[in-house]
């Protein structure tokens, strides 16, 4: 029987063997995922076919991005179904159509800014849009910054520096916005989500999170909810400690937890378990798609175990179907 995660009105059924790929194809790590206005699922992955497109039943539609993307990391889709693809391998953000035509490139491919210089980009991680279409970029692994751009890619301002104080970051890993223009930043290794206004002024932070990695704003309007993907332990000393994830948390617009999905007994490939939630998207039915970097994370979580072939093939993409009351 498929596993059921969550409680009350936030209950989800794990869809077994969701992705149906052409023979011989592998997703490997699924860094991020997005869903368009027709409920087509865009799977930004680190396999030979960087963008795999599926329907909501998991049937293969097409792929693109071969030879274009270096290392998939972040994916965001706007109201016009334009895809914003963040590539931390070549330090760029590319705005693309749903068939892969590049409309805009921000950053110079394969030319990173100096490490921790604050200049864009050094292994940028994700994007989000303001209500006016301005582009926020989280940056990332080799910087501790958020950059704000005009819709046509001109830098407006940047904020953030390394550290643990408000407005400082320790791996600024993901970014989201809401309809009012608030900016939410997954400050991964500081175990928090920081909240800013649209100009980068620190407002508050959400705590009681464990290595928040994926971040999705959903529901719209004045009372959005957020789904946060949390990574499990990253050190040998606490590798087997329970109740730290990996898991999904659903919170309201103040950061108050509404529900939590999985994570009580650590990572795994069994139904109802996660490996390393790295990207999240919802479709029109409220179903959740989770991209995981299970291949990269395997040796951290399971240093003495051989990785099952399914992890490299399709297991790094999961669909959680909302259970209707």
UniProtKB/TrEMBL annotation:
InterPro entries: 6-blade_b-propeller_TolB-like, NHL_repeat. Keywords: Glycoprotein, Repeat, Signal. Gene3D superfamilies: TolB, C-terminal domain (2.120.10.30). Pfam families: NHL. NHL repeats lie at residues 128-152, 160-199. This is NHL repeat-containing protein.
């Amino acid at each position: 029987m498929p596993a059921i995660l969550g409680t009350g009105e936030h209950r989800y059924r794990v869809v077994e063997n969701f992705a149906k790929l052409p023979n011989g194809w592998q997703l490997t790590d699924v860094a991020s995922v997005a869903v368009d206005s027709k409920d087509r699922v865009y799977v930004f992955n680190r396999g030979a076919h960087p963008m795999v497109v599926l329907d909501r039943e998991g049937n293969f539609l097409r792929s693109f991005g071969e030879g274009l993307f270096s290392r998939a990391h972040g994916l965001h889709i706007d109201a016009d179904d334009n895809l914003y693809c963040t590539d931390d391998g070549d330090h760029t953000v590319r705005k693309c159509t749903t068939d892969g035509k590049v409309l805009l490139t921000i950053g110079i491919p394969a030319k990173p800014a100096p490490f921790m210089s604050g200049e864009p980009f050094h292994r940028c991680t994700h994007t989000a849009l303001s209500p006016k279409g301005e582009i926020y970029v989280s940056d990332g692994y080799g910087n501790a910054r958020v950059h704000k751009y005009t819709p046509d890619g001109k830098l407006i301002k940047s904020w953030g520096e390394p550290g643990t104080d408000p407005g400082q970051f320790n791996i600024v890993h993901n970014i989201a916005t809401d309809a009012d223009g608030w900016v939410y930043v997954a400050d991964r290794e500081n175990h928090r989500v920081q909240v800013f206004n649209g100009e980068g002024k620190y407002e508050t932070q959400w705590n009681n999170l464990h290595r928040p990695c994926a971040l999705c704003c959903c529901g719209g309007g004045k009372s959005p909810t957020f789904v946060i993907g949390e990574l499990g332990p990253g050190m040998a000393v606490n590798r087997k400690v329970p109740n730290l994830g990996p898991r999904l948390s659903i919170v309201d617009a103040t950061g108050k937890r509404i529900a939590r999905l999985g994570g009580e007994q650590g990572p795994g490939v069994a139904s109802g378990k996660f490996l390393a939630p790295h990207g999240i998207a919802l479709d029109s039915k409220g179903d959740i798609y989770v991209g995981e970097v299970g291949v990269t994370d395997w040796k951290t979580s399971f240093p003495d175990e051989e990785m099952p072939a399914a992890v490299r093939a399709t297991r790094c993409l999961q669909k959680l179907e909302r259970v209707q009351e």
